[in-house]
Amino acid sequence: xxxxxxxxxxxxxxxxxxxxxxxxxxxxxxxxxxxxxxxxxxxxxxxxxxxxxxxxxxxxxxxxxxxxxxxxxxxxxxxxxxxxxxxxxxxxxxxxxxxxxxxxxxxxxxxxxxxxxxxxxxxxxxxxxxxxxxxxxxxxxxxxxxxxxxxxxxxxxxxxxxxxxxxxxxxxxxxxxxxxxxxxxxxxxxxxxxxxxxxxxxxxxxxxxxxxxxxxxxxxxxxxxxxxxxxxxxxxxxxxxxxxxxxxxxxxxxxxxxxxxxxxxxxxxxxxxxxxxxxxxx
Length: 282
Prior knowledge:
eight-stranded parallel barrel; alpha/beta; globular
């Protein structure tokens, strides 16, 4: 299992991800609702992670192109969203990650983002993967809900063939009948076997896709359960959508984790990780 290092980050910092390295946390609102909200969440999360010794990257989508309904809020769009992310990166001093959905978005996004994220629905889109690989950025590749963990080796191969050697693989649950997901924890060591650090998406894994008719539902109460299980299974990073008031969030509120409950959960997860490390090293 290799480690990867993110360079040229705000405040002259670097982040190394992988075995023996600090936990990586990708966290923020599902979608950029406003520059002010994103700034608030980024600042709070930076402070929490500094106290806990966690490597933090702010996550916020400039466009959610896969919303259930045409009437759903999608975000500020590419140009405005990247300006908001750039401001957060510069003023708060944290790296940023966001999704790209089309080849034409990659070049502009790479000018701002530290990590380019490939949404789960698009994990097999060859041209998009190759464009992301050629950007020179770290790529966070989410496993599709419809893809087995071992089949992700082919998606990783597309990125590597495109010239990308800094790849994160994220598990976010698999389709389980209609409007439901289930997490197979075996996928974490399987995907780690491809030589990439593995991230667990604790909030999308409790999503109920299309579960409320015109939008997705979620079972927020199970976020801690799955996050603890994933940490015990062995992960290098955690992905969470967080919001000061999830019930009023404009996207993915039912599965977002409350901002004021983030630190207690992270402390639990770090305790599990420490126990696992002690057992492996002892």
